[in-house]
Amino acid sequence: MANMTASSELPPLPEYTLEPLPPLLPWISDAYLSLALPVLAYWAMSLLFHVIDELDMFPQYRLHTPAEVLKRNHVSRWDVFRDVIIQQGIQTVVGLGLALTDPEPMQGKADYDVSVWAQRLRIAQRAIPGLLSLVGLDAVGIAKRVGQEQPMLSGALAGGIYPELTQTVLLAGQETLAPAFASWEINAAKAIYHLGIPAMQFVIAILIVDTWQYFLHRAMHMNKWLYTTFHSRHHRLYVPYAYGALYNHPFEGFLLDTCGAGIAYLLTGMTCRQSMWFFTMSTVKTVDDHCGYAFPWDPLQHVTSNNAGYHDVHHQSWGIKTNFSQPFFTFWDGILGTKWTGGDVSARYERARIAAQKKVDADNNSPAVTASSPAESKQSAQPYSNEATEATSTARAAQPALEPSIPAGKAKLQALGSRQQVLDDKQGGGKAVLAEESAEEAQAQQQLRRSPRKRSRSSGLKGFADRVGESLHGKGTGVLGVENSSR
Ligand SMILES: [Zn+2]
Ligand SMILES: [Zn+2]
Known about the structure:
The chain is mainly alpha-helical. The chain has helices spanning 30-54, 66-72, 77-101, 110-125, 128-134, 139-146, 151-157, 183-222, 224-229, 250-268, 272-289, 300-303, 308-314, 331-336, 346-364, 385-390, 393-397, 399-402, 410-424, 430-450, 464-472, and strands spanning 19-20, 106-107, 166-171, 174-179. A hairpin with a 2-residue loop joins strand 3 (166-171) and strand 4 (174-179). The model is unreliable at 1-7, 366-379 and 452-487 (pLDDT under 50). Bound molecules: zinc ion (2 copies). One zinc ion binds at residues 234, 240, 290, 311, 315. The chain crosses the membrane at residues 31-52, 191-215. This is Fatty acid hydroxylase domain-containing protein. Keywords: Membrane, Transmembrane, Transmembrane helix. InterPro entries: Fatty_acid_hydroxylase, Sterol_Desaturase_Related.
């Protein structure tokens, strides 16, 4: 046996042999699975929400009534279905292209990589005596004193010196005594390699997707040509439902969703298996944001303040120029001042419900519903001042009729900008939408004067206004995604 190497020397890294990584499922490669899973998750989740819708299982949590889905959307369910399939087709073809350039996944290097991290930890320990001396502690002295009872602590304090930790390794066919890692070093290295790094990759990927989507989505709303040419299609859904999540112009779908996810995948250096999780997670979140329900028990709606209620405001004719953040967090809206600041929106939701119900009732010849209350907010109007000055007279004229519950200040400008956007979109929006809404508003007001708190049971909205009102005032869970504590 050769001489023991110096104690300051690093424990050697193990050798490794790479071999192909067998796929998770024997009948499909991981690359194909990572493309299939998001699509499967999209339709499985959409189907679940569709069943919930059709059976009207949770009327108390609906953001909109079935009557609104029927009367307020400017696109048929079939068109939505077809366009989503087209987008998913494009997404899959691009993914297949990327998969071709990806090297074949291999395994066998994990122990080696863990040891690399253990070596880094060992090197980092060299700084401990110096750092402790800055606060007047003699690390080496303490190390000697605790040496007997706490050999590992002593080793770390001494700057990563563990003379008693050795192992025999084969070096050039000869058994050689070499330094070894402490078990805590290996465990910490494993935690970094198997948990810390993947978690960081997910967080960074989420930030990349949020940033990519926020700025492109915002640009789509700020530039009239971009809006009318591409993004207005998504906004034909004034009442979003689950599988409308990816209802987009194919170019927009490719640019925002496919490219965003692809870039996050490439930049973070995720493995194919990590990307399965990430792509599926993003898809599920987007579907959930469009599901049309504010569920108190849906974890996805509470992990971040970006949820179905938050995004629903963005789909309304008065909130379309606000709440651009998607799909995970709302911080860009917060930082850049584009969050909806009009406070309580329950009266506006109520109006839309009443109006849609009236239309359905007119079809069926049966009675309608009513109710609600407003609130106040004053905010810096900065990002919206241009919007408001450039708004056309039509958008201005609609103001008094359309905004009984929007307080003055920034919220008024946000709503004005939003109305202008609706007007700019000749196909899916236009004057007709505003005219219709102002007529609805007048009717709703009339109805409210006649029977202020009466609600029909057939509307399935019992307690809705109260619950929404509560959450909007920050007492509840904040399901409607407007300015209160965290949003
Ligand atoms: Zn939008
Ligand atoms: Zn949307």
